[in-house]
Amino acid sequence: MYQEWNDLLFIHYKIDYQQLRARIPEELEIDSFQDEFYIGVVPFWMSAIKFRGLPELPGFNSFPELNLRTYVHPKGNPNRKGVYFFTLEATNLAAVLGARISYQLPYSFARMSCKTEANKTHYESSRIAPQADVRFIADYQTLTENLIEPKSDIETWLSERYCLYVVKNKKLLSCEIHHLPWPLQKAKLSIQTNTVAEGMNFKIAQQEPLVHFSKKLEVFIWSLKDV
């Protein structure tokens, strides 16, 4: 599958290891950076979605998405760093159902909007089902037109991951995701409402999150396979 990810914001918080461990399958180990663990809220919108050999399908090829994630690797293989999703939200019901079936991902259906003007983005998401009343409303903007080059060690560690993991019936599966290195910019964030982590019963201590923006990324996504 081909996709384009647009106006994407990484919002990362430090979190206690035990909170993560209780919610991640035993087949996976949790990655840390300098002995600290992170959870990420990631709003963006997708476009130009199409399956290999097929044209874009109107009504399916562009919509907002929001995910809650952390960073993992298979047991005994720390070099295979990837992403583990706690929840993903989308406003396209067909995409929600399709991703649940084909990628075994915990998608939820939500009312969502993403409006961008110049370097400013207003983003809203309100989950419909399952577990309604999970909401995210925020404004964010870039602080400079310049890309972060070179990235710091933690910026590279958080962003440069090229697969996701799911576990089904105690079997570990992975999905390869190919793209160029993330073009990151410094960003400013103003959150009006964010209960995405709370919806998974995570408790995040008062802290300033790490915030990074990416305007656009072209992505190729493969099918699930056994690890």
Amount of beta strand: over 45%
Oligomer: single chain
Tally of helical runs: 3
CATH topology: Acetoacetate decarboxylase-like
Poorly predicted segments: none
What topology, given as strand order, has the largest sheet? 1-3-4-5-6-7-8-11-12
Distance between the termini: 20 Å
What helical percentage do the residues reach? 10-25%
Q: Could you describe the largest sheet, including whether it forms a barrel?
A: 9 strands, mixed, barrel
The coarse overall form would be globular
The total beta strand count reads 12
Q: Would you identify the CATH architecture?
A: Beta Barrel
Task: Give a summary of the structure in a few sentences.
This protein has 227 residues and is mostly beta strands. The chain is built from three helices and twelve strands.
Structure description:
This protein has one domain (2-226): Acetoacetate decarboxylase-like (Beta Barrel), CATH 2.40.400.10. Helices cover 10% and strands 54% of the residues. It contains three helices and twelve strands. It has helices at residues 17-21, 93-103, 153-159; strands spanning 2-15, 28-30, 37-50, 63-74, 82-90, 107-117, 120-129, 135-142, 163-168, 171-178, 185-194, 210-226. It has a nine-stranded mixed beta barrel with strand order 1-3-4-5-6-7-8-11-12. Helix 2 links the parallel strand 5 (82-90) and strand 6 (107-117). The two termini are 20 Å apart.
